[in-house]
Amino acid sequence: MGVLDALGHALGVAGTMTWEITWSLILGFTLAAVIQALVRRQTITRLLGDDKPKTLALATGLGAASSSCSYAAVALARSLFRKGASFTAAMVFEIASTNLVIELGIILALLISWQFTLAEFIGGPIMIVLVAVAFRIFVRRRLIDAAREQADKGLAGSMEGHAAMDMSIQSGGGFWGRLVSREGYTAVSHIFVMEWASVLRDIVGGLLIAGAVGAWVPDSFWRHLFLTGHPLAARLWGPVIGPVISLLSFVCSIGNVPLAGVLWNGGISFGGVTAFIFADLIIIPILVIYRKYYGTRMMLAILGIFYAAMVIAGYIIEFLFSGLGLVPAERAAKVTEQGIQWNYTTILNIIFLLLAAALLVRFFRSGGGPMLKMMGGSPDAPERHGHGGTVHRGHGGAESSPAHDAPAV
Q: Model's pTM, two decimal places?
């Protein structure tokens, strides 16, 4: 009975966190779907051909608009690199598309506090600048050439099919005209459902791990690990240990926010939480994919540069926010079992669940179902999934002709 009670407590904690963030996830993915529907993939590739500051700024903005799960972001960055984007710009795009997205900021504010949202959107660009400078100083041309040669082999990683799909609106016209058209509704529904499908594993995994850790790991363990009895040491140690915990947790994308809340309640420093969240791109499964995409030497370079940038960004955020008095005084992340109550969260969940249902119905009625089977497909699969019955050409030159609104299969 004790085991069942413990399991029930862990699931209760996970369920409460799920209920707290449901509406914000739907809102975030809907806004991301609207942006992605209006920004064509070939436009992104064309703008990222070098590593000049202006290009990297564009890569940051386009990445933030192209919200993706960590696996899809990594696959998409490799796709951009193969098509001619600079390696640094592709990495910047990858970082922004997982760490500077709308839904991440909303969930951080809901589960922990708004200060972490602010830290994420200030720390993200700091990390990007550090990564860009490090690549320019330490990564030689021959290593990039070797990485491109390896990337051109087209070895499959994870979420390759999803990364290869371009579901943006192809018709002309103004912003609102394209968005409210039948094609626009279809495009938004396809992107919305596919984004959910790609990230659902990480969200569920993150919530379950956070629920188990929050329910079973005693506070005394975290206090010892995070050196809470030594304030300065804790501030210096947090950004160092945060990414290591992320690397070993196997949880990425938005799924690591609930666990970040558990760590914050446990005593990790403010900068440590920030560095932990950034580290979704160096978890062990993704390091294995980097090795497959770019070779062992480039994988090690990415790991070293990303980790160092996360730690330094964590330090900057820690001391900047402390100096400005913005570090929350209380550790009250919503990772305890409170149950479902009739409040504004419940009302918002009902409204946004209805919106999600409408998009889901549109997705299947417009022939989107087969796309779910293609999410883990080849990186060289046809990338265009049209919404207007036109013929599109993929990577390998094969043509596809979707019927009505159905995607090319």
A: 0.76
Tally Cβ neighbours within 10 Å of residue 341. Answer: 10
Instruction: Find residue 393's DSSP bridge partners.
Output: 399
Collapse the DSSP code of 394 into the 3-class scheme (helix H, G, I; strand E, B; otherwise coil) and give the result: coil
Positions in the chain short of pLDDT 70: 1-6, 9-10, 12-14, 17, 39-43, 67-68, 156-176, 180, 198-199, 206, 250, 252-253, 335-340, 375-409
Determine how many CB atoms are found less than 10 A away from the CB of residue 325: 7
Name the residue among 331, 339, 309, 108 with its Cα closest to residue 222: 331
Chain-centroid distance, C-alpha 45: 20
Say which residue the tokens 């062992």 belong to: 296
Q: Report d(CA 63, CA 84) in Å as an integer.
A: 16
126/312 Cα distance (integer angstroms): 9
Return d(Cα 300, Cα 139) in angstroms, integer: 11
Distance, CA of 342 to CA of 355 (rounded, Å): 20
Matching residue, tokens 């409204």: 351
Give the Cβ contact number of residue 102 at 10 Å. 18
Other Cβ atoms less than 10 A from the Cβ of 57: the count is 13
* Residue 341, SS3 per DSSP: coil
Contacts within 8 Å (CB) and 24+ apart, 382-387: 382/164, 382/408, 383/41, 383/79, 383/164, 383/165, 383/166, 384/165, 384/166, 384/408, 385/165, 385/166, 385/167, 385/190, 386/170, 387/167, 387/169, 387/170, 387/183, 387/186, 387/187, 387/190
What local confidence, expressed as pLDDT, does residue 398 receive? 36
Burial zone of 357 (CB within 10 Å; 0-12 exposed, 13-18 middle, 19+ buried)? exposed
Element of type H or E holding 393: strand 392-393
Residues 6+ apart with CB under 8 A from 276: 242, 243, 245, 246, 256, 259, 260, 263, 268
Nearest-CA neighbor of 64 among 158, 128, 18? 128
Q: Are 259 and 295 in contact (CB under 8 A)?
A: no
